[in-house]
Specification:
Layout (H helix, E strand, L loop, with lengths): L2 H6 L3 H19 L2 H25 L5 H11 L6 H15 L2 H9 L2 H8 L1 H6 L8 H14 L1 H26 L6 H10 L2 H6 L4 H16 L3 H14 L4 H14 L4 H20 L5 H9 L15 H18 L2 H17 L8 H19 L9 H15 L5 H6 L1
Keywords: Membrane, Transmembrane, Transmembrane helix
Protein name: DUF2029 domain-containing protein
Organism: Tianweitania aestuarii
Amino acid sequence: MAVSDVTSGKTPTHFAASLLDWGSRLLHAVLTQRVVTIAAGVIFVLFILALAAVPFLHPDYNWDLTAYLAIAMENTITDHDELHRTVWGIMQAGATEDQFRQLTTVNAYNMAQYANPEFFYSQLVFYRVKIAYTMLLREFGPIIGYVETTQWINTLSVLVIGAVLMLWMRRAQILQSALLIIPLMLLGGFLWMAQLAVPDMLGTAVMLVGVYLIRIGRDWWAVPLLFLGFLIRTDMIIFLFALILASALLGGRILPVLTAFVLATLAYAPISHIGAHPGWWTHFYFTNVEIQNDMRGFHPPFSLLAYIEGVLRGVSSSFRFQNWLTVFVMLVLAWLVLLRANRVPRQGITVILLTASILGIGGKFVVFPLPESRVYFPYLVVLGLSLLELWRPRFDLEGRAAA
């Protein structure tokens, strides 16, 4: 031991303890509630801005884009062969060589759709029911470009989603929760959604605005937005029904949500008829049991065994290839923990939205067990935010000391 250590009475252990104490004091001085809250908000804003650039910087030329391009142009290009050539020409011009090769050769189904215009045209019956999304492509495509329209829709939707979540967290005074919302959004497929030319990002933006209006007590203002969300993705009618159930069980206002549900119910049949949709079971069988190269004349009889097969396949694919089901299970377990700790009230808008999200996710999967995270993303976000409102986590050291 050095002479200075002996004379001062200090050992290396004392110096280490002093250093740790000094570091702890510095962290307490820096990581105050104000600093951490502002930092969380800034990080969230930067995250949203980065994701808003993704549709233009890293677009994904996927199969759904071909279908939406075809629907956007089928009113002006009536010949199926010409429509097929035009759509695939746009895809080849915009996609990378690897993307286009993957799109046209990845499996027998894609190869058939690329080779046969009539097969390709027969698939459009599944996409026309996304009426609000396809109308936007049809209106703005000739002006700014069809692919560019999908990119602008995604970019603007990302910004709207970010603004709504920021307002929600600020109003609930849980802005530090942005540090948890970001990974939840990424696990829920937010980055992937930003790349894809699908209506899910737009539907999420509209639905979250509507739900936020309900959250702040502007229920009637939410009605047109909830109905618009249905026009973007018709399966949102399941979430509207879940909202009705949750409101009835937990003392919420039923009439505004019931109005949106009735409007969606009345519009469902005409939209399906105009789009020549083949019906729930045919769509279910095609997506979850066996893909068909040609949809003309395909109407399989209902089979309980086939339905069970589709659900089990959806569960398996969700766990193997997607994150949404794992995230959902974790959020439900978090809800049970809060429930056991008496942090979940018996009534109130937060618990209504929480319950509606759980019922909505479960209902959507039972009705149509798609394994893709993007289908459940908006409901996972609402569920996550509702849980964070009840939990109210803090990451500053002032909060730690208070706890």
